[in-house]
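Justification of computing resources. Each target in the renewal requires a structure prediction run like the one illustrated here; the chain below, 938 residues long, is used simply to show the kind of job we budget for.
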Amino acid sequence: MKRFSLLLFTIVALGHSATQAQQTQKKLKDIIVNHFFLCTLDQMLDTISTTYRIRIVYDKNQLEGMDVVEHFFEEPLKNIIKQVCQEHDLKYWIESTGTIYILKNTDDLARLKKLNQLSLQAANAKIKRKKTDDDDPDIAPKIAPKHFMFSINGRVIDQLTGESLPSASVKIRNSDLTAMSNSDGYFTFLRVPSDTCVVEVSYSGYQTDYFRLSSDKINNTLICGLYTSLNTLNEVNITGKKSGVMNTDSRQVGVLQLSPANLDKLPTMGDKDILRAFQLMPGVSGTNESSSGAYVRGGTPDQNLVLLDGFTVYQVDHLYGFFSAFNASAVKDVQLYKGGFTSKYGGRLSSVTEINGKEGNKNETNMGVDLSLLSASGFLETPLSKNETLLLSIRRSYQGPFYNKIFNQFNQTTTSQGGGFGGGGFGGRGGGGFANQVTPASYFYDANAKYTYTISDKDKLSVSYYSGTDKTDNSRTLGLPPGLSGSGSGIGITDYTKYGNLGSSVKWFRQWGKKLYSNNYITYSSYFNNRERASSGGSLLDSNGIAHTFSNNTVETNHLKDVGYKSEWEWQAGETYKLLFGGFVNYKKIDYEYTQNDTGKLINQHNNAMLEGVYAELSIDPNNNFHIQPGLRASYYGPTGKPYFEPRLSASYNLNDHFTVKGATGQFYQFENQVIRQDILAGDRNFWVLSNGSNIPVGMARHYIGGLSYENDEFLISVESYYKTLTGLTQYTVKQTQTGGGGFRMAAPQTQTVTEDFYTGTGRDAGVELLIQKKLGNYTGWVSYTLAKAQNKFAAFGDYYYDANQDVRHEFKSINMYHYNRFNFAATFLFSTGRPYTAPLSTYTIQTADGNSKTYLNISDKNGERLPAYHRLDMSVSYDLLKIDGHKVGSIGLSFFNVYNHTNTWYKEYQVQNNQVITTNVNYLGFTPNLTLSLRWK
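Resulting structure tokens:
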């Protein structure tokens, strides 16, 4: 067994541990060494520790044979530690306690920390020294307390950057008082027993720290600065706090928390993706490669509210769903509420994704780049003055090998006559993969900016900006199967799409006192989607054998604007309850135009609406085991002239230290919907509309959720079930009746008439989710299984429930991560049953009395067919780039998507030629490698 030398000194550092770490950092910079060392490295470290009273911990066996022959002349101690570590391929790490660890491998830290604690206990017992307050926060201090049963407020921040840390766990040691920091990092305790208590703070990816109160601190905001962990993926402290890539909150129902800093541990098609990471958890569909939007518990992406710094983001996709719209380098914290969410949020039927952007480094300039085979991004965060910070980030794609790999899928299609699916992916393109297709020209970009100004200790102002745009030119020549054209010429297709978001918010945070906080927002969000599609060709034969030329083009635009104000308040009204309340007002305007052949607007919709309301919610903790959260949201919607009331309730109860039962219910309304314009042949199109109370009703859902979880320091086992009912669902069709022109649907001469129809229906979703997660150790990860059903009923399709487009009956996920030194290995396997679709089966033509003809399609039952089962395996390996002091400055990653190259069907497309239905299968990505590089500079 290895022998360990733990160099300890008996004089402890003063104050709490955060102060100890700061003092150690200062010592390393301020102490000047003038000494000649001719000895082994361990002897040198012993000398430094004794001389300068710094605790150093190392493994003597690892340092065996390492000698130092060096004369340091007027050299800072920090430079000496750095130099000897570089010369001997070592690293050092300063813990929040002020202890310095000398590491051969970063994974040695956990082992050395345990041995350090054991040695401290043994040394104390040996010399029979009574422990003092500074040795152990559980021991009562020497100074007698002066204040009792008082209130305090504090703020949790990153010690190095000054960033606030939301959702940090805070508690008073040796009491039942617990709290969680809010979105600005603040927390409040009432009736603190005495001014000598210890505050314990934990946060994912950071070292748990302890802060001793004193009589001179209780009247000011307690600043709790945390230091990052060395191994943020695997370190779990003794309180069992989670610190992985994806975490759950045992006191809240259906809440997922994500740490963007750890996303490079997961396989990815492109950049680190905060929304796609959620797709690896139960209840969020993970087998729709063409969408970064969240299909949560049977809901559709438009039923998921996505907030970035307070404003709504309506389009969350880049590159038709292969990327999400958010650059992980600009994101600090993400939470997904899978259902039963609180009355603070409204306007959606299914779920909420809340994203908090970084504020920027308050202490020093930091910059970095992220490169992959598809895109490049960079960011800069810097202090502008003592009270001002700025963050900038930008990302843009380019057409490299990975890009071509994606779009070449359109050349890897097969055609057949008869059968198939309508309604498609990839922006609803039609025309599908017969031959002679080319890689489309496409790119996307997004940019984030955030300016923060600290007005005073109690006031902070921030301005956030986001812009993202996609442009795609998918124009191509579509060849025809033999025997279907008169001269063999093809169809020229123009297909140009541009879509994106623009959003901004101004936020004023105010701390009114120890118990009261507020956030006031002015928000702006806009969304646009412009598409031009044209087709032309010649020598196509009609049903009478006559050749025709034809030309047809459509222009479709959908624009949305959302301007609003909201005020959110948090009042710690009592020791066991907190009141959340606020109000909001929004003006929304949506335009949708559909023009054909430049002759006129077949669809010309222009609608606007005012929406205002209030909400209130109590967060009650009668004891340390029971949590209940009743709330009410009330809205008034202008176009209908009606109020809408949304009662909410959630609760959790700890049966013991490991088991928790929880449940939630509530009513939810949605006033804007992304409806589907059905097109069996060319693919469905989605666009936003406002409810009007008549043919577009206000959507409503009721959630019923229950769950049971078991959790210890190493494992989490959770089961949740849900049932949702929905009313006011809307689908939309444009019926184009064509006369003349024979059997080919675009052949001239033709006469077209357009009929618009909105269909109203109901829905029901139900499911059970199982999660087993391993949180601690070199091997971490989780497996999950979801059994679910999502069904709709529209009178237009019959008086029965049918499987909804997003219905996935069975879904299994296995996420596996292994950490070894600086290497991180990951493998994810996903399986799901196929999604339903509607298929055109055949065509028939009727001759009218005036001598013209009409061609019709025979369609299968609504979503009566299903695609094959989906499954794939992804793998990755990444290598962390560390500085000598152990801090991460980047990583290199290699990932393999769809390792065994399984063919998964994305969707099907159709063409009707000479009264025959030609089916084209369009597939998802096959085996695809990707290389990423991430670098940071300070």
